[in-house]
Amino acid sequence: MGTPKAMLPFRGGTFLTHLCQRLAVHCDLLVVVTGAHADRILCPPGARAVVNEKWERGQLSSLQCALRAVPAGVSGVLFTLVDHPDPAEETLAKLVQSQATVAVPVHDGRKGHPVRFQAALIPELLALPAGASAKDVFRAYAALTEYIVVSDPGIVDDVDDAVALLRFRARTEFA
Questions:
Q1: From CA 65, how far away is CA 60, in angstroms rounded?
Q2: Are 18 and 86 in contact (CB under 8 A)?
Q3: Helix residue ranges, H only, 36-146
């Protein structure tokens, strides 16, 4: 991509600033985890920056860094990836309102991000070994998972390469 995905330009800011603005409406605390390019990523004001020194271990290690920064007493966590930068406001509202142990948005039969889970799952997620996946914990709560059907293609955006970025821009440029 030529730059960290968090810093890709989008709607007058970056993927990260746009996503943080959306999430700030629904979350009391934003935790931004950086890794390989921590020195190049500008954390938006009001968000707590956490550097994952072991970023090469993958997504779970970043989630665990974020969860270690979550203060005691929160009821739930809304987790997303910066390469899913444009979830709709109403999707976020539905996820935050869910009382399920795990809440997952679904668009056109595809599960997406953000995912909301109750804070009671934090110890289990922190206990996962390197090489595991958060899905290992979430699968154990399948019967307590709410799949929320949304008309929001933003939950399945996955801007991992130049082609996906072009498709994303074509869908969102004038929206």
A1: 9
A2: yes
A3: 59-68, 89-97, 122-127, 134-140
> In which residue are the tokens 């939950």 written?
155
According to CATH, what is the number of the domain 5-172? 3.90.550.10
Measuring CA to CA, which residue among 49, 61, 60, 47 is closest to residue 18?
A: 47
Whether the Cβ atoms of residue 72 and residue 29 lie closer than 8 Å to each other: no
The answer to whether 71 and 100 are in contact (CB under 8 A) is no
| DSSP letter, residue 1 | -
* pLDDT tens readout for residues 97-147: 999 999 999 999 999 999 999 999 999 999 999 889 999 999 999 999 999
Q: How many CB atoms lie within 10 A of CB 173?
A: 9
pLDDT in tens, 118-130: 999 999 999 999 8
Burial of 89 (0-12, 13-18, 19+ CB in 10 A): exposed
The span from the first CA to the last CA of the chain, in angstroms, equals 23
Dist CA 89 CA 91 (whole Å): 5
